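Hi all, long-time lurker, first post. I run a small reading group and we've been trying to get comfortable going from sequence to structure in the token notation. Rather than ask abstract questions, I figured I'd post a concrete chain and ask someone more experienced to write out its structure so we can walk through it together at our next meeting. Sequence below, copied exactly:
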Amino acid sequence: LNQVKPGMEKIDLPNYYEENKPMTIKLDPALSPQRNAQKYFKRYKKMRDSIKHVNEQIEITEATLHYLDSVQTEIDNAEPEDVEAIKEELIAQGYLKPEQKRRRRPKLTEKSLHKFKLTSGKTVLVGKNNLQNDWLTLKKADKNYYWFHVKNIPGSHCILEDPNPTESDIQEAAEIAAYFSKAKNSAHVPVDYIQVKRIKKPNGAKPGFVIYTGQKSIEVTPEAEEIMAKKAK
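-- Answer (accepted) --
Happy to help. Here is the structure in token form:
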């Protein structure tokens, strides 16, 4: 600062971030050296705070894109009677305007879900939309049951209602989870599975979004005919 004299329009100073190479700094000759320094500090602070804000907005936007991608997957896998529930979900999240005369949202029950019977006779329940996914995983499922979901891809939450599944049970449940996902037409689909008690939902997270650690993974190929043959009547 002692090198800056009143009335100067610019000054060359060493740039400590680039091996002390000289850097030209523009100055306002109408301001004192201290006021010129304060002016630059205010600009720095404003830019620093704006970067933080931009990063926050990027995180929010990425979460929104992930959520809408999951809704697209729900629509792709939906049966005609499931569309109304997806519409209700989008209204609840503010993406669609509510109808003037809204019907009461149907109560979530096991009948709302897809239900499958494995070769062993054990049951797998599958959410049809993100509201059902949250209810199934966080409220209905026993904490010792097993949760299945495709790895890093939008898809339904699937619950295998058994605390001690066999390898065959895990294989079949993973195939169901793979089928009810964005990767349903892929040949090699990685599926995570873990006990329900290890599933957490972050505060403020959108419907269907959960976090977990300690999972195992299995790679499967979903075959539509074999999977739908297991669907309970």
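A couple of things your group might point at:
The helical segments are 33-77, 83-92, 130-140, 167-179, 224-228.
The beta strands are 10-15, 21-26, 114-117, 123-126, 146-150, 158-160, 189-195, 216-220.
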